[in-house]
Amino acid sequence: MEKREKIILILAGLVLLYGAFDYFILSSDKNETMQSETENKFTGFLESINASLTSLNILEQKKSNPDYFISMIESEWKNDPFSKIKRNQKTTIDKEMAGLMYSGFIKFGNKMLAVIDGMEYTTGENIKDSGYKIIRISSKNVILINKLNKKIVLYLTEG
Length: 159
What we know:
Blueprint: H1 3-63, H2 66-74, E1 102-108, E2 111-116, E3 119-121, E4 133-137, E5 141-145, E6 151-155
Antiparallel strand pairs: 1-2, 2-3, 4-5, 5-6
């Protein structure tokens, strides 16, 4: 064997010995410190679970008490499922307008057509046989005006 081969083998052997020494002897101290850190994290996790379970147990005890239910019913609700929806939209229905029905719309680029009683109308047109003029067309409603400048809103009825 040549001199450089011997040097390479000696260096490889030293690296192997250092690796074995580090793995078997020095790593036992690291495992103990790592184990205590993980144990601390785990105990913290268990304590948080116990706290949440305790609060759930208190809620269950409250729910079994009828007085708690009565107090919940009497308190004000954030989202009352039984409240009536208040609409700010004012609509009027004339005798002439009772037959008008906004059933759809057609959009061509910037131009919108409203389908009222099966006929297509655009903004500014008069509705046949009613005396109403279309002021504005949207996808949800059509705003009409009569001869007396009274605004009427027709809402889209699909069906």
